[in-house]
Every structure is written in structure tokens, then in C-alpha cells.
Write a structure and sequence with these properties.
Residues 344-360 have a biased composition (Acidic residues). With 360 residues, the protein is α/β, with parallel strands linked by helices. The chain is 35% helix and 16% strand.
């Protein structure tokens, strides 16, 4: 079965026009975003627009690719409000910024269009308005969706960001691909502290029930990475959570909601299975938790014997059971049902009609 992350990079899914990549202080999603930009730039029949607010264009493309005709790069890493003379000259620089972004997207050549924004939290800081930034992204998504085909809006966000809960709602986009980067130390911690390794080493329902609440607490991952025994940050291997909602797959079938956990290995060239990550190979040496529980014998390692020999089992089967009506031959199938009542001494039984004096 192909990896879901690989199909996302190849953009094989149709009508999946919104892609959200989520980084954190503990783990960056920049390698995945770089691979997406590279794949988009290799499709010469499609237009690609890259808006750089956080990382320079050289972080995504080679200088020779930046000059390509089907690629347009808008570098705003040097435009910082309060530190740029251009913002002082412009009376309404927020409106000018929004107008520049929309005009660039709308003036792209006809055909499939890929728009990449890095990063949206920096854009929110420049616009200084959550509502205006959301409206701007919604208008960009509308232009991308009107191009059809494999057109896509890729948004990079650094958590915690107030835009992430808005962008993940169905009101913003019914179909969504949400990619979140997690440090591999988080999976090791769950396996040792909570006895919950990733599937298939543990049941998926149990794993996601433990993983999601802990992953949402970002300080947990930061403590594992930057703590006293942390491994630090860098271009090491990491886990990728991929959530796909709506849209269609390569065969044209409609998708529901699909959530998987895959790996990213720089040495392996990108997407890979979790079992292929060097940092997690110690987990796969253990037996699956649910299989070990199913085959465990509760009578083992006891100081007394609870098992019966075959002779003891035959003797126990020959012992008659103490039934209450033992020895009485009754045929319940042929005897009509009846209620047998033994009156108590305090019961007042009178055969006369108690209501005979009533004129009914």
C-alpha cells in the first residue's frame, strides 16, 4: 500500500485544494514543505507561486529554479513592519500587502496553480488582524479552487497559531490535508511511559486516544527534545501525522476522514514507514501489546496449580448437580402454565364479591 504522505507530495488526489503543514518549536515541517515546493516546481505545465515570509527562497529552491518561467517567488522576508522604510512611506501598508498578494495570485497564467505560503503566522503578524488574514486566505483558496485539477494552496503554520483552528474547520475548506510533524522522541516516550507504541504494535483506538491529547500539549514535546535528556533539534528523523478529510483518491472514490502516522527520513529520501526510522527500531523489536495480552496465561508463575488433569476433569463431569426439583418428572411442554399461590396467614380471602353493594 503506498504511503499517504507520498501520494500527498505527488498530488495524486483530486479536489484536495487545501494543504496545511504544521510545525512546532520541537519539530519543524520544513523538509516536507521543501519537498512539496520542489515537486510543484518540476511540473512545468503548472504555475507555482511561492510567498516567503519566514524562510528565504533559497531554503526551498535552487537559484536556477527561481528564475523559471512557471515559478514566481515573492520574497517578503526583509519587509518587517516598523523596520522597513517602505512601510513608513505607504499610508495603508496592510491594504497594499493584501492587494499585492491577491493580484499576484489572480494574474497567474491560466491552468493548474500551486500557491505556497510560508508562513501564515508571520503573515498574520504583518496584517495584525485575524479576521482580515482569514478573509485573505479564503480569497486565495477561492482562486486556487477555480483553477481545478491539481491546483492547491499549501499553508505552513508554526504552532501555536490562532489560525490553525480556523483553517482546519470545514467552513474554511470541506476537504483538507493536514500534515503535522512530531519528534520521534514523543513516540518513544509514549511507548515507555504509557505502554502505548504506535500501530500495529498497539490497537489504533488505544494509541490515538493517548497520542492526540499529549501531542496537542506542545510543552510535552519541547521537554522531550530540549530537556535535560533531550536529543535537541536538527535535520534528524521525525514522525509525520497525516490527516485527510474529504476529496477523492487516485481511483476517483470519495474519501471520508483518514489519519495515519508515517515517518520522514533524510537518509531515505523523505517519506518512509515508521519501522524504517533508526530512532524507533527498538520499538519494533518488541511484540505487539494486544497480541501479548491475548496469549498471556493468567495461571502462569503461581505458587499453586489451578489446572486439572484429564482424570480430574472426567471425575468432575460425573458429579450430579444439586437441582431443586431433582427426581421429579415434569413435562413442561405438555403441562399448561399456572400460578400457584400459598396464602399467608394475614391474607383476608373472601369468596364474596366486595363490590356487591355497588349499583353498577
Amino acid at each position: 500500500m503506498p504511503l499517504l504522505l507520498s501520494s500527498t507530495l505527488a498530488q495524486t488526489s483530486r479536489n484536495q485544494h487545501c494543504l496545511l503543514l504544521q510545525s512546532s518549536t520541537a519539530q519543524s515541517c520544513l523538509p516536507v514543505l521543501r519537498a512539496i515546493v520542489k515537486r510543484a516546481s518540476e511540473r512545468t505545465r503548472e504555475s507555482t507561486i511561492l510567498f516567503c515570509f519566514l524562510y528565504p527562497p533559497s531554503s526551498f529552491l535552487d537559484p536556477s529554479r527561481i528564475q523559471a518561467d512557471h515559478i514566481r517567488v515573492v520574497d517578503r522576508t526583509a519587509n518587517v513592519p516598523g523596520y522597513d522604510d517602505a512601510f513608513e512611506v505607504e499610508k495603508d501598508w496592510v491594504a497594499a500587502l493584501k492587494s499585492q498578494i491577491l493580484d499576484t495570485v489572480r494574474s497567474a497564467p491560466q491552468g493548474p496553480l500551486s500557491v505556497v505560503i510560508d508562513s501564515v503566522d508571520t503573515l498574520l503578524s504583518d496584517v495584525a488582524s485575524l479576521a482580515e488574514t482569514t478573509q485573505l486566505l479564503s480569497e486565495i483558496l477561492g482562486v486556487v479552487r477555480s483553477r481545478g485539477g491539481s491546483s492547491r494552496l499549501a499553508i505552513h503554520a508554526l504552532a501555536p497559531c490562532p489560525l490553525i483552528p480556523i483553517l482546519t474547520q470545514t467552513r474554511f475548506s470541506p476537504s483538507l490535508t493536514h500534515i503535522t510533524a512530531h519528534p520521534s522522541a514523543l513516540l518513544t516516550h509514549l511507548s515507555t511511559a504509557y505502554l502505548t507504541p504506535p500501530p500495529p504494535l498497539s490497537p489504533p483506538e488505544k494509541f490515538w486516544g493517548v497520542f492526540i491529547p499529549i501531542a496537542e500539549r506542545l510543552y510535552e514535546s519541547e521537554k522531550l527534545v530540549f530537556g535535560q535528556d533531550g536529543e535537541g533539534s536538527g535535520p534528524q528523523e521525525f514522525a509525520v501525522e497525516v490527516l485527510v478529510r474529504g476529496g477523492t483518491d487516485g481511483s476517483g472514490r470519495r474519501r471520508g476522514v483518514e489519519r495515519v502516522l508515517e515517518g520522514w527520513s533524510p537518509a531515505g529520501g523523505g517519506p518512509c514507514e515508521l519501522r524504517e526510522l533508526e530512532n524507533l527500531k527498538s520499538l519494533w523489536a518488541k511484540k505487539p501489546v494486544f497480541e501479548a495480552q491475548a496469549t498471556a496465561d493468567p495461571t502462569q508463575n503461581l505458587s499453586f496449580n489451578l489446572n486439572l488433569t484429564p482424570e480430574q476433569q472426567r471425575s468432575r463431569a460425573q458429579v450430579p448437580l444439586p437441582y431443586a426439583h431433582e427426581g421429579k418428572h415434569t413435562e413442561t411442554a405438555q403441562t399448561p402454565a399456572a400460578i400457584l399461590y400459598d396464602p399467608d396467614s394475614a391474607d383476608d380471602l373472601d369468596d364474596d364479591d366486595p363490590d356487591e353493594d355497588l349499583d353498577i
